[in-house]
Amino acid sequence: MEHAEFDVVYIARCRFYIVDKRLGKLVEVDDTGWNCIGRCKTLFSKINSYGGGMLAFSHWMNEDMIFNTSRIAAQFQVKYLATDEEEHLRQTVGVHFAADNGLRGFTQNFNEGVNAEKKIRR
Length: 122
What we know:
By secondary structure, the protein is of the alpha/beta class. 38% of the residues lie in helices and 21% in strands.
């Protein structure tokens, strides 16, 4: 299964975007499971394994939560993406949904990682 190639992850108002290098497009990754703070470690691990870059977090996560979640987080620059910045990004680059662009594997593997983590905790 094909994975997205990306350098940047934007997170704004509980929505996640990647800029796919293959498509040259902004892609909204449709997975509300990412909204849970407790899943940050898996998120960072997955992004790191795909060679991700910057993470931008909206106001619903504070920096202490992010940096205390995983040492991997320290590799990413964290900044907040304001609503007007998000709108500007959506209008200038355009939004494509992951499921429509062969990127379903990205979300699927993320969910598999979360499920595996749950089993280990039990």
